[in-house]
């Protein structure tokens, strides 16, 4: 079964549908305080095209996910149309630097490297919590990079996670273009552990019926945020105002419950990518 053939929701189907319908009604009923001038009628927002359940292609090829719903709500608050630009992370970063998109709709890790490249919107509406994923018959504790010395570690390529792990562990870190491939290698015991965000790991474990398990939080929550082009203070400020509105009016809570069953702004579990 392909990524787009299975819903990323984690509830039984009847409850999923009820939550999704209720969330749609709630979000559509919120007031729309426009923060852009009338001269701006659309914005181009970049999304990863293979990052379920946050942004991914459905069976009909359309882009969907938690981040898509959040960005649609932000654009509604700002009174602008959302133009979706699906790409890989390297291309999205290049397009943002070149001014070809207005911001990236998947929150990025606010690493020193990313802060030098982009400006970040505050507040964030979720934080990242890494977890270790191990084979189901592995009872070892992997709680820090020190615990992984001499172990084979799988991570998603071109992320802040890879940068930090490779800096500490060197060649024992194996970077994968697709995290599901790392989890499959873990299931075959080709790896000792995979580091990934809780919700993403659980999505693939369930989808592929893998004999692996999410164990313990691996690190403290890490700062993340929406990234805009360096020096775009007006865009940064308007996005910040829209995020604050979304947090205060309950619309983020409704979107979160549609996808995950809880409010991600109040949870230590979240999501982010790095350029």
Tell me what you see in this structure.
The longest helix is centred in the N-terminal third of the chain and has 16 residues, at 13-28. This protein folds into 2 domains: 3-126 and 223-266, 3-Layer(aba) Sandwich (D-Maltodextrin-Binding Protein, domain 2), CATH 3.40.190.10; 130-217, 3-Layer(aba) Sandwich (D-Maltodextrin-Binding Protein, domain 2), CATH 3.40.190.10. The radius of gyration is 19 Å and the shape is globular. The protein has 275 residues and is α/β, with parallel strands linked by helices. The chain is built from 9 helices and 13 strands. The model is unreliable at 1-29 and 31-38 (pLDDT under 50).
List keywords for this structure.
D-Maltodextrin-Binding Protein, domain 2; 5-stranded mixed β-sheet; single chain; 275 residues; alpha/beta; 2 domains
Task: Summarize the structure in short.
With 275 residues, the chain is an alpha/beta fold. It has helices at 13-28, 66-78, 89-97, 112-117, 160-169, 179-187, 198-208, 233-248, 251-259, and strands at 42-48, 50-51, 55-57, 63-64, 81-87, 103-109, 118-120, 130-135, 153-156, 173-176, 193-197, 212-217, 224-229. The strands form 3 sheets. Strands 5-1-6-13-7 form a 5-stranded mixed sheet. A 5-stranded mixed sheet has the order 10-9-11-8-12, sandwiched between helices. A 3-stranded antiparallel sheet has the order 2-3-4, with helices on one face.
């Amino acid at each position: 079964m392909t990524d787009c053939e299975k819903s990323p929701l984690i509830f039984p189907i009847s409850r999923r549908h009820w939550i999704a319908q209720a969330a749609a009604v709630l979000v559509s009923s919120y007031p729309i305080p426009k923060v852009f001038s009338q001269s701006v009628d659309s914005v181009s927002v970049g999304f990863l095209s293979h990052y379920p359940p946050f942004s991914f292609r459905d069976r009909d090829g359309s882009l969907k996910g938690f981040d898509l719903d959040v960005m649609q709500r932000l654009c509604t608050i700002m009174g602008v149309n959302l133009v979706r630009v699906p790409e890989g992370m390297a291309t999205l970063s290049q397009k943002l630097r070149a001014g070809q998109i207005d911001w990236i709709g998947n929150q990025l890790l606010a690493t020193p490297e990313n802060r030098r490249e982009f400006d970040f919107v505050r507040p964030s509406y979720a934080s990242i919590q890494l977890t270790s994923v191990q084979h189901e018959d592995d009872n070892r504790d992997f709680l820090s990079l020190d615990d992984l010395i001499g172990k084979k570690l799988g991570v998603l390529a071109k992320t802040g996670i890879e940068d930090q792990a490779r800096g500490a562990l060197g060649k024992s870190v194996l970077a994968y273009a697709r995290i599901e491939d790392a989890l499959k290698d873990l299931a075959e015991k080709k790896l000792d552990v995979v580091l990934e965000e809780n919700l993403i790991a659980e999505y693939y474990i369930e989808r592929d019926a893998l004999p692996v398990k999410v164990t313990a939080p691996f690190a403290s929550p890490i700062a993340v945020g929406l990234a805009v082009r360096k020096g775009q203070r007006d865009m940064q400020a308007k996005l910040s105002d829209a995020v604050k509105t979304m947090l205060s009016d309950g619309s983020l809570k409704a979107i979160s419950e549609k996808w995950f069953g809880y409010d991600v702004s109040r949870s230590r579990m979240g999501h982010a990518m790095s350029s």
